[in-house]
Amino acid sequence: MSARRFEVLRAELLLVWRLFRTDAARQTKRIALTVLAIAWGTLSIVLLLSFGEGLKRAFNKGKRGMGEGGIGVLWGGSTTRAYNGLPSGRAIAFRDEDADLLAQRIPEIASLSREYAIRRGLTVGAKTVNARIRGVDPTFGQLRNIIPQAGGRFIDEADMSEKRRVIVLGEELADDLFGSQEVVGRTLQINQSTFLVIGVMQPKTMMGMYSGPDKNQASIPSATFKSMFTDSKIEDIVYRPVSLELADQAKWQIYRTLAAKYRFDPEDERALSVWDTREDQRIVANIGLGIQMFLGVIGTLTLFVGGMGVANIMYAVVKERTREIGVKMALGAKMRQVMTPFILEALLMTVVGGLMGTALALMLIVGVSLLPLKDAAFDFLGRPTFSPAIAAATSFILGTIGALAGYFPARRAASVNPAVSLRYE
Amino acid sequence: MSDDKGRDGQMIRMRQIRKVYSTGRVEVEALRGIDLDIPRNEYVAIVGPSGSGKSTLMNIIGCLDTPSSGEYVLSGETVGGLDRNRLAEIRNRHIGFVFQNFNLLPYASALENVELPLLFAGVSARERRERAAAMLEKVELQDRMEHKPTELSGGQMQRVAIARALVNEPAIILADEPTGNLDSGSGKGIVGLFGDLHANGQTIVMITHDSAVAKLARRVVQIRDGQITEDRTVAA
Question: Using CA atoms, how far apart are residues B98 and B166, in angstroms rounded to an integer?
Answer without folding.
Answer: 10
